[in-house]
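Before the break, one more example. Copy the sequence into your notebook; we will annotate it together after we see the structure.
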Amino acid sequence: MIKITFLGTGTSQGIPIIGSKHPVCLSSDPRDKRLRVSIALAWDDYFFVIDCGPDFRQQMLAMNARQLDGIVFTHEHADHTAGLDDIRPFFFRQGNINMHMSARVQASLKQRFDYIFNDKNKYPGAPSVNVHSIDKSSPFKLGDKQVIPIEVMHHKMPVMGYRIDDFAYLTDVKTIADEEKDKLKGLDVLVVNALRIEPHPSHLNLDEALALIEKLRPKRAYLTHISHLLGFHAEVEKDLPKNVFLAYDNLEITTSL
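Here is what the structure looks like once it is written out:
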């Protein structure tokens, strides 16, 4: 069994958006307040995070996290990587932090966070990492579990989703090739993005996300990477199919295995 915690369920600007007077941004419902998208995975004595956005420090404090066995990255966009410096408290206690990412994400992070990835003349307060390269064709291990990468397309950018046991996490999806969909059969829980009502060039909208869920037929599905343009949490969720739920920050769920 895996415990999944939704650390953040918002889009790249979060909700509320700075300075916005949109009704959803002004909502008093805590489920309408969304940090940048990320999840935590815990089983036995393991604790991993998928993505490390600009709200990472706040998210780890909210969980009272004491350890970090590794970070798995979906892609290099800032809302998924900009919190990387805040691994330092874990590094000071544990040593090098394990990170799993594609070669393209490595190249981006090595440029943007050179002081972390470059071991030459390292500043004493800088963290260090152990980088593990991944690609869509090669399963890898997190702790004692096998992870199956699933390549999805974020407009023209390949992004990694991940399946562990009967759980799969997909974010920043617009399209998925049929051979990658085959990796998503027989799921207990599917998490997938649903940005807004209107179509978007690089993200699934609500209708597209629901159509994908209908095709893949997981037992349960949770929608994430949500913008204010999807609408109020309470109003959207009441119209969803009975096995589909709108995720919200700090929601905890478990898988059947």
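The chain has one domain: 3-254. The first helix runs from residue 56 to 63. Try to locate both features in your own notes.
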